[in-house]
């Protein structure tokens, strides 16, 4: 039997609305200018076609055509200029997340040039330097991209250490000398936000953020440090003149601007990961469902259905968590900084789930996943990068742990957080204030979301595991020695992160009316994940006997339901043929 012999009725089931599909995309939740720009972006990629997408990726061609399109449409200027810089524009995390997903769907490189522009703008929009703010707004309007000059070859993104040195010039300014490494857009950026330190001031008071221009003669582009279509530069400044009007931040404010910029930019990785997985899933399901081996359709094999169903459920959870996180970003204030937990969660948890989704599909399509004329081949390479940008998984897990005690044991009252897709400017993101006090942030009671869905068997089973985790911390808390053992502590962090992940998944499922069987299938995966991390904790060298006994006691099997699994499989099956990028 060939694919053309497959009964068409199995391919004509309407696709589930959960995944982005360019064929049917209608961002009706946004205002007209936003809808037009999002749809224009999709149409540009679709009209350009798959061959051009693949060829430029393989040739590592700089995406000048995309940047020309974005400049012509005013895409970056419209989406990345806050109202304080232009009253006709706004910084709207909801539509920024939407564009992240679209750009990820077509390729990491297109998203990356946009992402590092966001990072480059962070210190500018946080600055009180009106001249540089006006310059940045003008550059965006002219179609320029930006860069974030923080990391260095010797120090990485360790902002306590920098070899970019600013020497006073005796006229109120400085000359800057030093190198920066792994700086996206550093080849063409109209404005580069550069972090350095003064030669004449010791300690944190000597930090400086300043604006540089990649076109200046004292700005030397060294090389592209990655073998990819994107340009991730090494550049060097040699006595670069930094005028007083180029200075964005000094002292501790420069340090805070660096961290707060990463708070804003780190979030974008999750929705890019979602977009990559969505495109890859259309390819993988269509290939598997139309392939016949040993006289059977590949998707008739039980293990194939299980893997693709698991991939789909995990992808749905990624979308739910990311979408709900947007709401907390947009309602943040000095009194409500819950977003500072959900932010590293999106960076760490959603992006690592993206890796799992790709791996599950790759197990099904096997050699097809290596073929050069597929999107999947690119997705399998690029999905690995997202958990490793803006801090590693380990760095983000260590950050997440700072919130654990208050999140689990000290709930506070907050007004309900609604879905935030309104056309408002998220101005608080550029006045976050000092980057400290994370351990004092309070959260609403996580148990409420679980209680509202306790009738679902796997939500109830996962809740048992979550309650057990609280008991572990109260009855067998990590000792001082264990708290110094990062290998042990990170496994605690993984267990905690699952509880946070599940909470926002449940909240978004409630807000969107997600199918109950699909939600229970999501928690089938979370029950298994909790059991896997409990097993890892059991095996750690520093785990005590009591903690090891707890770990084994909280390994659970998810509640199986053949009818539920068949229903969710029908959602996956409907993806076959639902989208293919035009040639």
UniProtKB/TrEMBL annotation:
Record-linked Pfam families: Acyl-CoA_dh_1
Segments forming domain Acyl-CoA dehydrogenase/oxidase C-terminal: 255-403
Keyword Transferase in annotation: no
Keywords assigned: FAD, Flavoprotein
InterPro entries: Acyl-CoA_Oxase/DH_mid-dom_sf, AcylCo_DH-like_C, AcylCo_DH/oxidase_C, AcylCoA_DH/oxidase_NM_dom_sf
SUPFAM superfamilies per record: Acyl-CoA dehydrogenase C-terminal domain-like (SSF47203), Acyl-CoA dehydrogenase NM domain-like (SSF56645)
Recorded family membership: Belongs to the acyl-CoA dehydrogenase family.
Protein name per its UniProtKB record: Acyl-CoA dehydrogenase family protein
């Amino acid at each position: 039997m060939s694919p053309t012999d497959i009964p068409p009725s199995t391919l004509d089931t309407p696709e589930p609305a959960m995944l982005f599909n360019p064929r049917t995309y209608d961002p009706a939740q946004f205002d007209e200018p936003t809808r037009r720009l999002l749809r224009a972006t999709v149409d540009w990629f679709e009209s350009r076609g798959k061959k051009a997408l693949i060829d430029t990726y393989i040739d590592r061609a700089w995406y000048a055509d995309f940047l020309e399109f974005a400049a012509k449409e005013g895409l970056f200027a419209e989406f990345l200029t806050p109202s304080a810089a232009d009253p006709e524009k706004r910084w709207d995390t909801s539509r920024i997340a939407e564009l992240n997903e679209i750009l990820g769907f077509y390729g990491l490189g297109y998203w990356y040039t946009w992402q590092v522009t966001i990072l480059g703008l962070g210190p500018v929009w946080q600055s009180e330097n009106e001249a540089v703010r006006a310059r940045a707004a003008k550059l965006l309007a002219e179609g320029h991209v930006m860069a974030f000059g923080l990391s260095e070859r010797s120090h990485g993104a360790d902002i306590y250490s920098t070899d970019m040195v600013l020497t006073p010039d005796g006229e109120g300014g400085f000359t800057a000398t030093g190198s920066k490494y792994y700086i996206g857009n550093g080849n063409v950026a109209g404005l580069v936000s550069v972090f350095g330190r003064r030669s004449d001031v010791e300690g944190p008071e000597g930090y400086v953020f300043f604006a540089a221009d990649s076109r200046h003669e004292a700005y030397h582009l060294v090389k592209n440090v990655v073998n990819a279509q994107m340009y991730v530069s090494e550049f060097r400044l040699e006595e670069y003149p930094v005028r007083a009007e180029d200075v964005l931040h000094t002292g501790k404010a420069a340090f805070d601007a660096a961290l707060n910029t990463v708070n804003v930019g780190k979030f974008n990785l999750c929705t890019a990961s979602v977009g990559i997985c969505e495109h890859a899933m259309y390819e993988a399901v269509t290939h598997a469902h139309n392939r016949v081996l040993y006289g059977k359709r590949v998707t008739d094999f039980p293990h194939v259905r299980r893997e693709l169903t698991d991939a789909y459920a995990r992808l749905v959870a990624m979308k739910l968590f990311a979408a709900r996180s947007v709401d907390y970003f947009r309602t943040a204030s000095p009194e409500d900084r819950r977003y500072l937990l959900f932010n590293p969660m999106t960076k760490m948890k959603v992006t690592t789930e993206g890796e799992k989704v790709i791996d599950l599909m790759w197990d099904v399509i096997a050699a097809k996943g290596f073929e050069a004329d597929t999107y999947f081949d690119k997705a399998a390479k690029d999905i690995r990068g997202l958990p490793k940008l803006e801090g590693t998984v380990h760095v983000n897990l260590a950050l997440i742990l700072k919130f654990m005690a208050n999140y689990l044991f000290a709930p506070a009252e907050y007004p309900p957080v609604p879905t935030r897709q309104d056309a408002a400017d998220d101005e608080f993101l550029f006045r976050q204030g000092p980057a400290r006090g994370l351990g004092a942030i309070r959260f609403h009671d996580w148990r409420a979301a679980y209680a509202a869905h306790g009738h679902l068997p796997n939500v109830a089973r996962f809740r048992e595991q979550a309650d057990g985790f609280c008991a572990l911390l109260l009855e067998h808390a990590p000792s001082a020695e264990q708290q110094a053992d990062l290998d042990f502590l990170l496994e605690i962090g993984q267990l905690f992160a699952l509880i946070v992940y599940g909470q926002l998944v449940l909240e978004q499922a409630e807000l969107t009316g997600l199918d109950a069987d699909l939600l229970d299938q999501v928690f089938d995966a979370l029950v298994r994940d909790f059991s896997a991390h409990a097993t890892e904790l059991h095996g750690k060298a520093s785990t005590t006997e009591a903690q090891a006994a707890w770990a084994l006691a909280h390994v659970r099997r998810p509640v199986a339901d053949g009818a539920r699994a068949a229903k969710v499989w029908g959602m996956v099956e409907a993806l076959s043929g639902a989208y293919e990028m035009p040639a």
